[in-house]
Amino acid sequence: xxxxxxxxxxxxxxxxxxxxxxxxxxxxxxxxxxxxxxxxxxxxxxxxxxxxxxxxxxxxxxxxxxxxxxxxxxxxxxxxxxxxxxxxxxxxxxxxxxxxxxxxxxxxxxxxxxxxxxxxxxxxxxxxxxxxxxxxxxxxxxxxxxxxxxxxxxxxxxxxxxxxxxxxxxxxxxxxxxxxxxxxxx
Length: 186
What we know:
Elements (H helix, E strand, L loop, with lengths): L2 H13 L2 H23 L4 H20 L3 H23 L4 H6 L7 H28 L2 H22 L1 H7 L11 H7 L1
Helix pairs in contact: 1-2, 1-7, 2-3, 3-4, 4-6, 6-7, 6-8
């Protein structure tokens, strides 16, 4: 859902500037969220939160004519996601499992491992964004978002498939680890 708006952000930034790109990003995000809602009468929590931040920080960027806000948005969103996942783990409440809403079914050990990995990945993305936007040009930062963060996220997601396959369960009510998962943990 974020790929289309981000691609438009990149194209408009290359042809105009960060402010036009931010406006286009905001419009495309609203359109993307609207499409998701009308297509399934539901918007998943993570894209909804990210979309709200895009609108708030994009709005601040445009109103104040200061691109700092749109550059801070990925840091804050990724740090927020990482913090929520870490706190959820500490409280023994798996927020990642809740956020995915049944898209995959894993045993509890698998959910815990997957959540730890994503929490650290979100933290890495927040720190990487901070470094890049503070040390590089705006155009480099935009390129980093499109050609760095998106491929890294796809690669990271793909690298989680072995863990998901190892801990996948058939029946969502059956939270016991599979025999293969038990063998791998001993």
